[in-house]
Amino acid sequence: MSESSQQTSTAPPAGHVHDARHLASLAAISAELDSSYRDLQEQVIALRAELAVSRQARMRELAEKERLLGRLSSLLAALPGGVMIVDDGDTISDANPAALDMLGEPLLGETWPVVAARNPELQSGRPVPGNRHLSVSSRALHGDGEQVVLITDTTQLHDLQEQLGRRQRLAAMGEMAARLAHQIRTPLSSATLYLAQLERHDLPPGQRERICHRLNDRLGHMEGLIESMLSFVRGHSPAMEPLLLRDVLACLEATVGPRLPASAGLLITPVDDTLHLLGASDELVGALSNLVMNAIEIGGDQVRVEVWAGALNHDWLQLCVRDNGPGIPEESLPRLFDPFFTTRAGGTGLGLAVVAMTIGQHGGEVRARNRAGGGAEFLIDLPIRQRRSPPRDSQEQNPTPGRRAL
Question: Which of left, alpha, beta for 342 (phi over 0: left; psi -120 to 50: alpha)?
Fold first, then answer.
C-alpha cells in the first residue's frame, strides 16, 4: 500500500469533528446556564431575605397603626365632649358615645340641620331655660369636604359664671350701699340740725325762712343723690328713635338756659339738619345738661361753656362740651367716670357715671381731658344714623354745610 493511502485512512471523519465541536459548545452553554442558575438562586435568596425584613417592618407598622387607632378610638369614646364627622352633604357619618348621649339617637346617617332642629340648645347661642348649655365648634378636614364637629357641655361653666356674677353683684350692691350711706350722711345731719333749730319758738321769721331754705336745699340734695343712684343701678336701655342732633341741642338749650347764672355764658354752635342719630332724646339731653351744669358749678358764675357738634366722618359725629374753668386734676382723670368718685365736697359721684352709662347705651364713648389754654372738655362720639343718600353727583355739587371735625 502506498504512503498516501495510509495517511488518508488514519485521519478522523469530518462528521466526528463537527460532533465534537457541538458537544464542546453544549458543555460551555451548560456550564454558563449552571452558573446563571446559581446566581439566580443567590438573588432569589437575597430577595426573599429582603422581602422577609420588609414584611416584618410592614407588620410592625400595621401593628403600631392598629395600636394607635385603638388608642384613638378609646380616647374618643372616653372624651366628655361629643365628636362627630359630617360629610360634604351635611350627613353625620360617625360619632362618639358622648355625642350620642348629648344629642340622642338616631344620629348616624342623619343630617346636621335635622339634629340641630330637635336640640334647642344648638339652634341659637342663647341658653334655653331648663336645658343644658352646649357649645359647638367645627373644623374642616382636608381633601374630602368633611368636617369634624366638637360639642361641649358648658352647663357647669355657665352655672359657675352665674354664681360668680351673682356674688359680684351682691358685692357691688354692698359697696354701693356703703358709699351711698356715707354720701347721704352729711346732708341728712344738716337737715336734722335745721329741723332742731326750727323747733325754737323764739326764732325770728327771717332766720326761720333761711333755715327752711337750707333745709329744702339739703333735702333736694339727698333726693338728687338717690335719683342718680337709681338711674345708675337701673342701667336699662332706653327706647331708641331717630333723632335730629339739631333738635337735641335745642332741647338742651331750653333745659339749661333758665338755670344758668346771669353772669355765666353758654354758646351752642348751630348745626344743620343733616346729622341724624338713633337714641333717646331725654337721656341725651340729661347727659349733656349734667356736663354743662358741672362746668358751671366748678367754674363759678363767670365761666363760659361752649357746646360744639359736627361729623367726624360718614359714620361718627362728635359732641364737645368745653369750658374755661380751672380744669380737672390730672390724677382724677383716670377715675372721673367711676361711680361715687367726686372731686367736689358736695358732689354725689354719680353724675358722670350716669353720663358714661347713657353714652354707652347709645353705642358711643365719652372721654375727658384738659385744654391746653385752660379749662376742661368732654368729647362724646356717637354713631350717625345712615339715611338713603342722594346721588354722588348731587352731593359733590351741593356739599353738606356744617360738617367739620375738631
Answer: beta
